[in-house]
Amino acid sequence: MENNNQQSINLNKFISSTGICSRREAEKLIVEGRVTINGNPTQLGNRVFKNDVVKVDGRLLQHKPKTLYIALNKPVGIVSTTDSKERNNIVKQVNHPQRLFPIGRLDKPSEGLIFLTNDGDIVNKILRAGNNHEKEYIVTVNKSIDVDFIKKMSNGIPILGTVTKKCKVEKVSEKVFKIILVQGLNRQIRRMCEYLNYEVTKLKRTRIMNVELGNLKPGDWRELTSEELKEINKMIATSSKTEEASVVKENPKRLKPKKKFSTIKNDFNKKSASFRKTSPKNKKKSTNFSSKKKQRF
């Protein structure tokens, strides 16, 4: 092939850039043998050049469409999934002509701000906990909030086999508080409250990173502004796209070196042991012991 000096792109990245799926899902399609380039079977690591024809399951993939980033005020009852089997899925709610998928989740009984996009590259950069991107919520609970509740929520709560990261929590009114997270554990706020014997009656996400929900009505959406996108791109410029960003690195325990025994000491011990065995006293003892043994049987 004479394509070496031409501009190219990784196959999985190309598939993701068309908006049909994320990079990880694209890798699965390649491994399953469902992708071809110019009619030839493909494998991970293949690259796509300008005039290449890429097909998935025999269907032609078009080059990257306009990249879209949408802010939706998700109503209660809408499910953050693209699964067509789910009657109340978020894609139907948006009803956009382009194929979009949500960045992260917002529980069915929760409401508020969620992003949708056709850009598979940005998803993990925003979601990984280790990248420390803030998400802000206003939460209503079933009983009065006290100082102890705020303190414990702020310092971390043991849920799902881990302890939540320290976060900012502020009392708004008797039963309402504001919380800012950099994590996205499954039903995190609800589980944290349940651990302290509180029940969440209303949960609303009001901010993701630099984007505010503002006056957007439930069910309505808007495209992110160029200023918002510029700021987001700055914030994710150094973000990791891999799971390493969500792993807290621990300092490995240093093992103390084992004490080395000198060969001189070992030789001495061996010699002294053999000396004890061959000594007259030991001979007598062993003879007496064996004779006593014989007398017993």
CATH class of the largest domain: Alpha Beta
Mean pLDDT: 82
What structural class results from the helix and strand content? alpha+beta
- Give the overall form: elongated
Largest sheet, described in full?
9 strands, mixed
CATH domain topology of the largest domain: Pseudouridine synthase
Strand content bin:
15-25%
Rounded to the nearest angstrom, the distance between the terminal CA atoms is 91 Å
Extract low-pLDDT stretches: 242-256, 258-275, 289-297
Domain count: 2
The CATH superfamily of the largest domain turns out to be Pseudouridine synthase
- Gyration radius (Cα, Å) is 32 Å
Oligomeric composition of the shown chains: single chain
